[in-house]
Write a structure and sequence with these properties.
heterodimer; A: alpha/beta; 7-stranded mixed sheet; 5-stranded antiparallel sheet; 6 helices; about 30% helix; B: Rossmann fold; Gyrase A, domain 2
Chain lengths: ~270, ~280
């Protein structure tokens, strides 16, 4: 068994404010929530391994993407660090994996009742649709897994996030660690209880692996992005193949989802320079 | 006659330091932006000594809002501000009877080119089109050429002027200084430079019947060598770009305006890679 884990931080139990997850201007709470975050990843690994040995690749997918604390993780896993990965939160998720977990995930930008909801870069991305489907990070990332034939098995986060993923991918096991009360508050279970629930969820997900499907976007793949600001669209429309469809919107059509995904990464990088 | 003027600043007489051309500088920049504007005015006056000309000036330096209105003829139009989709060639997507490049500088990597760079002095190492290493003048002249517009005049240091007139023998060159390395120059005075530019523009218009558009034959192959690996990492995210080395990317376009826009967006995106990860 070989599993891929993409771990984010906003969907960790208890998290309800940017300060708790901001690694760049560390607030005292970040050090604490970084531990809870690592423990949730550890719990997912432990739960999966209750059923047998599993090779693990963990992709630290939050902020600068170097948050996980090695000392709290099993010594035999591999970890992807650093945030300049061309496939970002799903780097190296190739066809050799039997399945994937998304731990600590959060809602799509624009979701009501989703703590710290955003889609990659909230200052640039206002909305993103692929083939007419409104996408969260989980949607975009699961589709890259799906391109490689890897099923998403488990998602953890707040109720909005988990139920949003399950509407698009009904097979996915979900662990709801909190109920969001708007964007900056949550009614959460404790970190210890969340870790127990995540371990149990990981185990259940693997027990149900035969029921799992892959999520893919069929070509031609049309990505439509609403930018936050007109000046960002001014820049993004210059990406080869992009079409300006409105003052703050662009469209990109191609047949290859990895190309679409990288073009999305280029979009938020480029848009951030406006 | 419709005349297009793209004006840069590093090739202005006397300029030999970034401080003189940095809009945030309060000591030398205010003086040199005036000299820059006067060189543009001299070029327009030289052209108009031969024939009436409708003039579009594209301020093409840094923030692209350097020109001083009060130093310009009242009947010109000016494109100001940045970013612009065609950057130093904004407005030149439409045909003109001819174009002037004033205050231009040598390409990145050139010895004896005052403040030599090609669009960026931090993220690019070399830019080539169809195997030819390009200066801004060459990249921009090919954009003009795609619309049938010939470059008629270039002003700047000896290195850029001689390179451009060698590639485009119909272009009139006005050498306002000889670069002594990157940060020093042996220059004419601003007043003499304006006289020389006025005379050069006059000659350029008189000789314009011999001028031709400068073009690259399609398919247009753009190769960008980046300064750092991190810059190529970002450019490789773009659709249709191919990574051809640790610090090299390649893009092939069916037409030059597409290649030019791809170059501009790649350079912009590479700049974002310079920030702390």
């Amino acid at each position: 068994m070989k599993l891929y884990i993409s771990s984010d931080m906003e969907g960790v139990a208890g998290v309800c404010a940017w300060e708790q997850v901001d690694a760049r201007t560390p607030h005292p709470e970040y050090a604490l929530y970084r531990e809870y975050y690592t423990h949730e990843v550890r719990a997912a690994i432990a739960g999966a391994r209750e059923l047998g040995p599993a090779e693990m690749l963990v992709n630290d997918s939050h902020g600068p993407m170097r948050n996980l604390l090695f000392d709290l993780l099993p010594p035999d896993i591999r970890v992807l660090f650093g945030n300049r990965k061309p496939y970002s939160m799903v780097q190296d998720a190739d066809s050799t994996f039997d399945g994937a977990f998304f731990i600590g995930y959060h809602g799509a930008i624009g979701d009501a009742n989703a703590v710290l909801c955003h889609t990659y870069t909230p200052s640039v991305i206002h909305n993103v649709h692929v083939n007419g489907v409104r996408c969260s990070e989980a949607t975009l990332n699961a589709a890259l897994l799906g391109h490689h034939g890897v099923p998403l098995l488990l998602v953890t986060g707040d109720r909005t996030t988990v139920e949003g993923v399950q509407r698009q991918m009904p097979w996915v096991e979900g662990v709801i660690v909190k109920e969001s009360i708007g964007t900056f508050s949550a009614d959460s279970i404790s970190p210890a209880a969340a870790q127990r629930a995540i371990a149990a969820g990981a185990r259940r997900a693997l027990e149900r692996r035969d029921e799992m499907g892959t999520f893919v976007f069929e070509p031609p793949i049309a990505m439509e992005i609403d930018l936050a600001k007109v000046e960002q669209a001014d820049l993004v429309e210059m990406i080869p193949g992009f079409e300006r469809t409105g003052a703050r919107s662009v469209r990109f059509i191609c047949d290859d989802y990895p190309t679409t995904f990288k073009a999305f990464v280029a979009t938020f990088r480029l848009g951030a320079t406006a | 006659m419709r005349l297009y003027v793209s004006c840069d600043m590093e090739g202005t007489a006397g300029v030999c330091s970034w401080m003189q051309v940095d809009p945030s500088d309060t000591h030398e920049y205010p003086t040199y932006r005036r000299y820059m504007t006067r060189e543009v005015r001299a070029a327009i006056e030289g052209a108009r000594a031969v024939a009436p000309a409708e003039v579009l000036i594209n301020d093409s330096h840094w923030s692209m809002r350097n020109l001083l209105w009060e130093e310009l003829p009242h009947d010109v139009r000016v494109i100001s501000g940045s970013p612009k989709p065609h950057s130093m060639m904004e407005g030149a997507q439409a045909p003109f009877d001819g174009a002037f490049f004033t205050g231009y500088h040598a390409k990145i990597g050139d010895a004896n080119g005052t403040l030599a760079h090609t669009y960026s002095n931090s993220v690019l190492y070399n830019v080539s089109i169809n195997g030819v290493r390009c200066s801004e003048a060459m990249l921009n002249a090919a954009m003009l050429g795609s619309q049938g517009t010939p470059l008629l005049l270039i002003t700047g240091d000896r290195t850029i002027v001689e390179e451009t007139t060698a590639a485009m023998p119909w272009v009139t060159g006005v050498i306002v200084k000889d670069a002594i390395g990157y940060y020093s120059a042996n220059s004419m005075t601003p007043a003499s430079a304006c006289e020389a530019i006025r005379a050069g523009a006059d000659a350029a218009i008189r000789g314009m019947a011999a001028a031709r558009p400068f073009t690259f034959a399609p398919p247009v192959e753009l190769v960008i060598e980046t300064a750092g690996v991190e810059h190529a990492d970002f450019i490789a995210l773009l659709p249709t770009f191919e990574r051809v080395g640790g610090r090299a990317v390649r893009h092939v376009a069916a037409d030059y305006p597409s290649a030019f826009r791809a170059f501009l967006v790649a350079t912009r995106l590479a700049g974002a890679a310079t920030a702390t990860a």
